[in-house]
Amino acid sequence: MIEAFKKAGLPEPIFEELAGGLQVTLLKDIYTEEYLRKLEALIFTANCDPLRDEGKAYAKKLSAACVETIYKNYENIHGFFGLGKMGEEALKAACDFLKKTLFD
Fold it and tell me: For residue 18, how many other CB atoms are within 10 A of its CB?
């Protein structure tokens, strides 16, 4: 990730180790555990997804860092989002999550 920042001409981000070993880019003056407890995350993966294991591990680390996290693995292939019955279910779940998170 740092290489991507360098290629884009941006300064290296500040990484801080959080509970559970999660490394995130932070502005040190706004980070508190109370702040993290207000965050929510929704992560979907698919069984035939090259990033499935990383997505699951990321969800565990977010949870360990006090971020309310919803993780669901679908019995499908990468790129299924919005396609077919399962993809439509995932799309609806994402929309519901965003409505709840942004407007409630």
Answer: 19
For the chain, give the number of residues: 104
Give me 16's structure tokens.
């801080």
* Ramachandran angles phi, psi of 73, nearest 5°: -105, 125
Q: Identify whether the C-beta of residue 44 lies closer than 8 Å to the C-beta of residue 90.
A: yes
pTM: 0.62
pLDDT in tens, 39-66: 789 999 988 888 899 999 999 988 888 8
Helical spans, DSSP H, in 30-83: 33-37, 52-64
Residue boundaries of the structural domains of the chain: 31-103
Between CA 32 and CA 50 the distance in angstroms is 33
Could you give the CA distance from residue 86 to residue 96 in angstroms, rounded to a whole number?
15
CA-nearest of 35, 33, 53, 34 to 43 is: 53
